[in-house]
Amino acid sequence: MAIPKVLGTETEYGISAVGSADFNPVLSSSLLISTYAGSLRRIRWDYEQESPHRDARGFEPVPMREPTEEDLGLANVILSNGARYYVDHAHPEYSTPECASPRELVVHDKAGERVLERSLEELDRAVPPGQRLAIYKNNSDGKGNSYGTHENYLVDRATPFASIVRDLTPFFVSRQVFTGAGKLGSEASWDEQGRHRYQITQRADFFEAEVGLETTLKRPIINTRDEPHADPERYRRLHVIVGDANMCEVAIFLKVGTTALVLKMIEDEYLPDLSLANPVASLHEVSRDITCRVPIRLGDGRRLSAVQLQWEYLERAKKYVEQEDPSAENEEVVERWERTLAALEEDPLTLHRELDWVAKLRLLEGYRERDGLDWSDPKLRLVDLQYHDVRRAKGLYYRLEAAGAFDRLASDAEIDRAVTEPPEDTRAYFRGRCIARYPDAIAAASWDSMIFDTGVEALQRVPMREPLKGTRDHVEALLERSADPATLLELLRS
Amino acid sequence: MPQEQEQKKVQRRSGGGAEGEDAGQVKASAKGEKLKEEMDDILDEIDSVLEENAEEFVKSYVQKGGE
Q1: Chain A positions in Cβ-Cβ contact with residue B49 (cut-off 8 Å)
Q2: ipTM > 0.95 (yes/no)
Q3: Cα A116 vs. chain centroid, distance in angstroms?
């Protein structure tokens, strides 16, 4: 039987400076993160405002000063919601805490946008007038540089990796029809300039291989990075690099919900062989076909459109959910999936309330029609970029959302709560709660351990190798009884 | 939550085709008008928040690769 799917996303945000010629993306990312982390400390230690330069255990509280070694060592913090917020290469990256359901991941993925927005607000107060940073939740600068939005899924180690490759590759190629965030033009070196005005995904242009370890060069559809961050005998943590960053809640839900369900079916050997003849070429073709009708060639010679290929997965999934894994959550995934495929078959452009690539295309077409703009007009490029701006007052996705133009799956209150509160059904609960309760006693933390420094004995490591242990049910009472970290460790030992 | 999942049809080319007299056609173009108005409102709103100097702004957005 398939194991429960523990899920997360890891988003690298685009970052640039406005009004300043002198911009270092690595330092700026670090400053952004340490400013946010520092503000949390300031809230905790508000009564000590007379010491504004107090060392907050590595979190520098004052922004826009000379960079310190700590900055050059680059900010890397764990938040009270269990998320990790850090600098990866030249981008701020937000890794959600582990979530136990697609719906919960939607909330935490959106909470990541709020963290970036708040970080910007904090930093804006400290930079000179006329200067600011801009942050985008997208995957490309339109000039051939891409940064990733990765997904991770807990998978049974016993499942042969070859099965994952066989059954997931056609799924990834075809799921683009609902996971795409939309992009003007093409950034593929082999593509004829100007031939494709708009494509479904931001990422397809950057993929050149079927399977591999790389994430920055010769990117593969199936990434083989094997960091379980859990008991390696039992688990694999599948690292998915082929998706886009989504603003639409429905698109996030579909992306992670359908993928989790397909992985369960792979674990239970429930899928037929749908291998493609040329997966990489098909990935590019699907992304370039906004009608969603172009046929893809399968290994057995059949020709199916991306939507038809998705129907093959969906039909199996319906049977699977009914016979093997009935739950309200799975039924919601299957139901939305079916509605989406039906609409894609009928007319993809009707999905502007659900899918990013459709909403963005509609906006661009609106501008073209009203202002008579050519596809190459810089204003359209700006619309493409600013759609992903994380500031709710300025981001175009958010202006549309405020106008009621999108279907929502999460309330603003839920999202705001997830900025500070961890999911309750995974080990992220224990991590987040310990950080909130005993911030001064956590020497370090990672996905699968917490290291405590209670000041009286050697550092003590609490392993967390089971992603579904350390939930609210498991540890809330224990934490309530532990007024201090020493007591907690004592109780954990007994 | 979604309220209008099933029957949404975007009138992609308002006024396209011959001007018909039957009720269906009139209804469709009325709906097209309404969608166009909605879109115009949205564009007005977005005009007010779009960054200035689009060309320069987009040109200066250059990222280092990531991942």
Answers
A1: 386, 393-394, 396, 399
A2: no
A3: 13
